[in-house]
Amino acid sequence: RHYNFCAGPAALPTAVLERAQREMLDYQGRGLSVMEMSHRSSEYVAIAERAEADLRELLAVPDNYRVLFTQGGATQQFAAVPMNLLGRGGRANFIETGIWGNKAIKEARHLFGSAHIAASSAENGHVEAPQQADIALSDDAAYLHVTPNETIGGLALDFVPVARRGDGVEVPLVADLSSTILSEPLDVSRFGVIYAGAQKNIGPAGLVLVIVRDDLLDQAVSEMPSLFSYRQLAEAGSMINTPATYSWYLAGLVFDWLKRDVGGLEAMAEINDRKAAKLYEAIDRSDFYSNPIAVRNRSKMNVPFVLADSALDNAFLEEAEAAGLLNLKGHRSVGGMRASLYNAVPESAVDALVAFMGDFEKRRG
Ligand code: PLP
Q1: Catalytic: which of 54, 176, 275, 300?
Q2: What interface predicted TM-score (ipTM) does this complex get?
Q3: Please, what are the domains in the chain?
Q4: Whose alpha carbon is nearest atom 14 of ligand 1?
Q5: What are the tens digits of pLDDT across the range 277-311?
Q6: Where is the Aminotransferase class V domain (predicted)?
Q7: Each residue's pLDDT tens digit, 141-183
Q8: Nearest residue CA, atom 15 of ligand 1?
Q9: pTM of the model
Q10: Which of 174, 191, 195 is closest to 85 using CA atoms?
């Protein structure tokens, strides 16, 4: 297998794919594939429950939080969050740090007419994130939404915000953790709602993980479609309809891999720290490569970089691909390069990338 630096859908651990392959036709002697099982069968319910239990253990999810395995991508949550949290009035507040957060803002405005930007990095072109002191919630804030890691820009918040209004009331913090979940330990209790599209650190695209605090299950608008409703999803064990059974099973294999093969999220974070440090060092020691993000806000998961001469971009990408380094092209909206270093990208991939970058610079720089 080649090294895959894709931002999403991203690489899955090879050990997970191998196990899925072994179990594809005949799941543990049952004579059928997981894909063919009834979601109500005891075999499948055991798979689903194991996945949730392993996730809860990995993230130390407190008992007063529900874990939902739902569908529609993280984008569906851009709508589901305000619909679940604004039923008692108030306004969605946002820290705006890039393209994904902006899509969430747009959706909240579309559905509820308005949204308040409590802090933004738009003025500096999203290269340096706001700090706690910059956050000014509206008086009617119902919650504060953040995108702790902007996957396209490679901008990461370096703190967990406290969402306190002028009147002293602390409102729930909502986080789109699509591109960082499970990359390091997380204090779930700081958040009201966490959601993450699966296709980076969890499993196949389409599946979405939502972790929601119990007291936020009854704040939804009254005309809520059942499939969007956190309360109904929680009450039905995420099985209002047929869930994404195979994706949920694969997510469970990834959680199992994280627990058993990697040794948990602290061990994962150490590896991820080393990977990111190696790549940023390579970028920083050369005049040929550069990354625009303020050092404190550099993402460990998505590392955008540009070549001093953009005329060499295509040659860089073609030669990288020939060397087995796939999907290094930056997002179509920003250009340049981007290396995504999610959990399944091994340290050896970063070593190979750094060696290739050095070699390319020597030959073409
Ligand atoms: N939020 C973030 C931070 C993302 O990186 C992405 C990208 O995949 C999304 C939301 C959108 O996810 P989806 O394509 O699953 O709707």
Answers
A1: 176
A2: 0.99
A3: 15-261 (3.40.640.10), 264-364 (3.90.1150.10)
A4: 73
A5: 999 999 999 999 999 999 999 999 999 999 999 99
A6: 3-353
A7: 999 999 999 999 999 999 999 999 999 999 999 999 999 999 9
A8: 73
A9: 0.98
A10: 174
